[in-house]
Amino acid sequence: MRNVAPLFDLTGKTALVTGASSGIGQSIAVALAAAGADIIAVSRSEPVETATAVREAGARFAVIAADLSVAESIAQVIEAAYAHAPRIDILINNAGIIRRNDALDFTAEDWDAVLAVNLRSVFFLTQGIVRRQLQAGARAKVVNIASLLSFQGGVRVASYTASKSGLAGLTRLLANEWAARGVNVNAIAPGYIETGNTEALRQDAVRNRQILERIPAGRWGRPEDLAGAVVFLASAASDYVHGAVLPVDGGWLAR
Description:
Blueprint: E1 14-18, H1 23-34, E2 38-43, H2 48-56, E3 61-65, H3 73-84, E4 90-93, H4 108-135, E5 140-145, H5 158-178, E6 183-190, H6 199-203, H7 205-214, H8 227-234, E7 245-248
Parallel strand pairs: 1-2, 1-4, 2-3, 4-5, 5-6, 6-7
Helix pairs in contact: 1-2, 1-8, 3-4, 4-5
């Protein structure tokens, strides 16, 4: 029987992970490091815990301080990334923000803020990284962090739903354009995960119960539940996977 373990080995690869200071981004960075990849984190704050965990996994770690809501920061991030490494083999577009309000009261400011981080920065960062990879004759793996709201509407999160629905479409478009050029573009759609963004929901007894009743697995997800999916999509094991949006949701969408 063929040994499949080498397909998941990321030794010698470099991964750029946005929003890596905590939660899902931190867990992804550590998982990739454990599989052998060196990590470059993009974060507005100093990712101290992430740096420690990545180095404990035996990988190199570097950080680029940036606010991805500022359009001009994208080019700076790309230049800084290639100053740290000759190639960016893996790009994880995880950084994202959310704003909540009734659709009738939603503001243009909250609309633009979310779309700037969750969609605009993803496209132009991916464009810049992939352009440099192709110019060097190198392959790339791009993994976007989508959402259950890439499939569903949700309530009171108009700009977030729009951005994550757009991200699913963008994932497919880029896969169509780049698959034949050695670039895999896929996405993971996390379910309800125990992070700071979901703290208010978990503290609301009614909403917490409603959510748990809908999840076949019977529990909230944990950031580390995404580790296997992200290593798969970042590795040679997924070389023939293009344009997929993979739910990691405890069965939520199957209910």
